[in-house]
Amino acid sequence: MFPAGSPSHTFRRLSLLRLLLLLLLQALGRGLGRASPAGGPLEDVVIERYHVPRSCPREVQMGDFVRYHYNGTFEDGKKFDSSYDRSTLVAIVVGVGRLITGMDRGLMGMCVNERRRLIVPPHLGYGSIGVAGLIPPDATLYFDVVLLDVWNKADTVQVSILLRPPHCPRMVQDTDFVRYHYNGTLLDGTTFDTSYSRNHTYNTYIGQGYIIPGMDQGLQGVCIGERRRITVPPHLAYGENGTGDKIPGSAVLIFDVHVIDFHNPADPVEIKTLSRPPESCNETSKLGDFIRYHYNCSLLDGTRLFSSHDFGAPQEATLGANKVIEGLDTGLQGMCVGERRQLVVPPHLAHGESGARGVPGSAVLLFEVELVSREDGLPTGYLFVWHKDPPASLFEDMDLNKDGEVPPEEFSSFIKAQVNEGKGRLMPGQDPEKTIGDMFQNQDRNQDGKITAEELKLKSDEDQERVHEEL
């Protein structure tokens, strides 16, 4: 649309007082228009609302910034101007004299996606002068208008909660890291972006300036699993310039958001005991213990990831041996056999920003675990420990055929006998044959396939600070 006073579009201005008076008169009979008696010249703009959207949460008011398309024709249907030909929306403030008076009035009360035909009499258009070479004097103008956007510089972020889960123990606040899906549209419903098309959540810190200010504000106080609509005016989005080829300048943006999870980098593992065994529990799991446990693992939105039940056997791990993620290792400590827990593990104690196979990056994990069994572990570096002092004549007892040397078969038979008689134990959770084989290799110092009395040494002889003794 032509700005008032420009050479190509000399829209006449009325005084603000007169404009207000005429707008008030129009409000009394808006949508009908008026003609003078006996079919004389039009006194005011005629407004034909030939498409009105079902939902109209907001109507254009004086001082609003609008974006719209239009076709301008004369009474005979000849086109004199069109925003479509320029592939550019009109973007302008309404009701402050920047448009011809007839257009100013015709846009008032309009809804986004509404279509109107405006019949503008000459005295509300270009009057008796017209526009040289384009609009003749005393021309009645016909405009077909569709409104695509409206906002005001006083607008703030609008948040509509579409779905909030009944249980919301924690809400997003500054410095939290949020993972969410979104659909982004303009006010007319045109999609400009969606995370769903990438099959990946949008992940960001809140309140740190990583996203547009309107989204920073709109995500405050959201719950995990919540769905909300965030309407962001352009001065809290991408401003007058827009961004890329999908978001035009001065565009209001609507985000339909679904929050998958969030956490804070300072979060510890959250541990909740679901049940304990009825009998008393004198010993609990600790660092170094070999444990067996069942688990179910999911995302906070309920997406199932893994379960030990799928393999038909408990998971095995030695606590503190870096065999499981740090948060799970922490959550499995201090448990009684038969106890069930729920663990919420933040990503910095799980698989981090990169994620893992089947686990999205920066994902908070939810575990339900049950401790099935527990065995005391061995000190670091030990493969076997004696429960009491080792035999004084260790080599002689090990040399079963008394030939002065111990081959692998004799060594293995001796160690297994000590375990069966309860005199010592091997490292739990490992293949006994492999463990015994490793022990033999450690003692066969010249690697000739047999152990002599000179080669055989207790672990305590090599590492005096150790309390336990090991072959």
UniProtKB/TrEMBL annotation:
Keywords attached to this entry: Calcium, Endoplasmic reticulum, Glycoprotein, Isomerase, Metal-binding, Repeat, Rotamase, Signal
GO terms for MF: calcium ion binding; peptidyl-prolyl cis-trans isomerase activity
Domain PPIase FKBP-type stretches: 63-151, 175-263, 288-375
Domain EF-hand: 386-421, 431-466
UniProt main location, coarse: endoplasmic reticulum
Catalytic activity: [protein]-peptidylproline (omega=180) = [protein]-peptidylproline (omega=0)
UniProt-listed PROSITE patterns: EF_HAND_1, EF_HAND_2, FKBP_PPIASE
SUPFAM superfamilies in the cross-refs: EF-hand, FKBP-like
Enzyme Commission number, as recorded: 5.2.1.8
Compartments (UniProt record): Endoplasmic reticulum lumen
Pfam families registered for this protein in UniProt: EF-hand_5, FKBP_C
InterPro entries with a match to the protein in the record: EF-hand-dom_pair, EF_Hand_1_Ca_BS, EF_hand_dom, FKBP-like_isomerase, PPIase_dom_sf, PPIase_FKBP_dom
Signal peptide coordinates: 1-35
Protein known as: peptidylprolyl isomerase
Organism: Ictidomys tridecemlineatus
Lineage of the organism: Eukaryota, Metazoa, Chordata, Craniata, Vertebrata
Gene: FKBP10
